[in-house]
Specification:
Elements lengths: L1 H19 L21 E5 L4 E4 L7 E5 L11 E5 L2 E3 L2 E4 L9 E3 L5 E5 L6 E3 L3 E4 L4 E7 L5 E7 L4
Parallel strand pairs: 1-11, 3-10, 8-12
Antiparallel strand pairs: 1-6, 2-5, 2-7, 3-4, 7-10, 8-9, 11-12
């Protein structure tokens, strides 16, 4: 009897989510410049310093030393082939642009990173890359101690 009630509750809950259009979707891992549908990784630089990014993680003539191979918060080091590009202030990539940023770093300075606005801050040394997933944006600015602080967030759809 309890199993039947549990299944019925799960079925009703799923039907309600489908009927109202509510869904929770984790951003897929960004990979080699390809966006998943309209979801693309992006970087926003507000630091006044040169930021490095790649749209080709996994292929290319350069190497990116990525601390989080899967794009999550867990450490899984990857000495990945890539093509490194640079930018000043501005935004590269993002949902609906067709440009998919896979990872970022600051080659001349260490930086702090966190995933979500309430995530724990972590220090990354200069040249260590942080991978982001499709649909995420790494928003970097200057904060305490004139240091770089980057928050990785899920983008609002376009």
């Amino acid at each position: 009897m309890r199993k039947r009630l549990g299944r019925a509750a799960a079925t009703i809950g799923t039907a309600l989510l489908v009927a109202t259009g509510i869904a929770v979707v984790e951003a897929p891992a960004a990979n080699a410049g390809n966006c998943t549908g309209r979801f693309c990784g992006a970087v926003k630089n507000r630091t006044g310093r040169t930021e490095h990014f790649t749209t080709s993680l996994g292929s290319g003539a350069h190497f990116c030393d990525v601390w989080n191979r899967d794009g999550g918060t867990g450490s899984n080091f990857w000495h990945a082939p890539c093509v490194q590009r640079t930018m000043g202030n501005g935004v590269v990539g993002g949902n609906g642009t067709g440009v998919d940023v896979d990872a970022f770093t600051f080659a001349n300075s260490g930086y702090h990173e966190r995933f979500t606005r309430v995530g724990t801050w972590h220090w990354r040394t200069a040249g260590i890359w942080t991978k982001i997933r499709d649909g995420e944006i790494a928003d970097c600015g200057i904060g305490d101690g004139n240091e770089i602080w980057c928050t990785v967030l899920v983008q609002v759809g376009k």
